Amino acid sequence: MTEAATQSSVSSAPLAPSFEPVQGMRSLRVLARLLDYPTQELQDASGELIEILNAETRLGASLKLSLMAWCHRLHEGELLELQAEYVAMFDKGRATSLLLFEHVHGESRDRGQAMVDLMAEYSAAGFELDARELPDHLPVFLEYLSMCDEAEIGRWLGEIRHILALLTARLEERGADHALVPLSLLALIGAEGDVEEHRPQVKKEVPDNTPEALDAVWEEEAVRFSATSDEDCALQSAEGRRLAERKKAVHSDPVKIMPSAWSASPSSTVADR
Predict the structure, then answer these.
(1) Per-residue pLDDT tens digits for 137-153
(2) What is the rounded CA–CA span in Å between residue 123 and residue 143?
(3) What residues have CB less than 8 Å from 251, skipping those under 6 apart?
(4) Are the C-beta atoms of 56 and 67 separated by less than 8 Å?
(5) Which of 17, 77, 79, 190 counts the highest number of beta carbons within 10 A?
(6) How many domains does the chain have?
(7) Element (H, E) at 50
(8) pTM surpassing 0.85?
(9) In a domain, 269, yes or no
(10) How far is CA 137 from CA 35, 91, 115, in A?
């Protein structure tokens, strides 16, 4: 990743990036860090993460308290246990994948094109990745958003709100603190209610992170190299088909970031505060 991006890694030093993110949206960087693999650096930075979250005026008090309490638990937790829990939650099965396009395109060729398009967006903004990072990894995506203006942040969060809502419901069902991150992103655009419609479906889902389930998924969802579209490859997953159909059926209105709780006027922007 570029110098600007690598400085975003959590450490005991301040989270001050070399570029200037939208003022007041450093919370996006905190949310990115909270979705990263737990490290000693993350634990050591918990106090700073809490400070930044506490200063975020676009999130409700209850949600901020939950996020800050999670930071405390990360700081106090046994690192090896935190890492094992992370692997079990995100590296086994696809239901809670942090790869955004996997929820829509599965392993189809359309996912590859979507990542190419996203990389072009990153490059145009001067945001570069190293060879180890996938552009649709949610923490990486949040790093990018921290460079964007308010309108762009709202546009992108509106584009992925269905994925965020489904991910929130699944993580909540598994009792994971990580659900607070996609929920916070939805809260930034006033869309927390989107989670409700996914909860009945999620409660019926069979866990996909058991050894038996993993074997079945790989047998059933073999990549179809002849696929030329989402429809042809059936998106490799049921939720992929459902989300794609919904995206076609629902017209997306412009989405805006929720104003600061102490905003002086509707016309004030993030940079003004």
Answers:
(1) 999 999 999 989 888 99
(2) 13
(3) none
(4) no
(5) 17
(6) 1
(7) helix 46-55
(8) no
(9) no
(10) 10, 13, 10
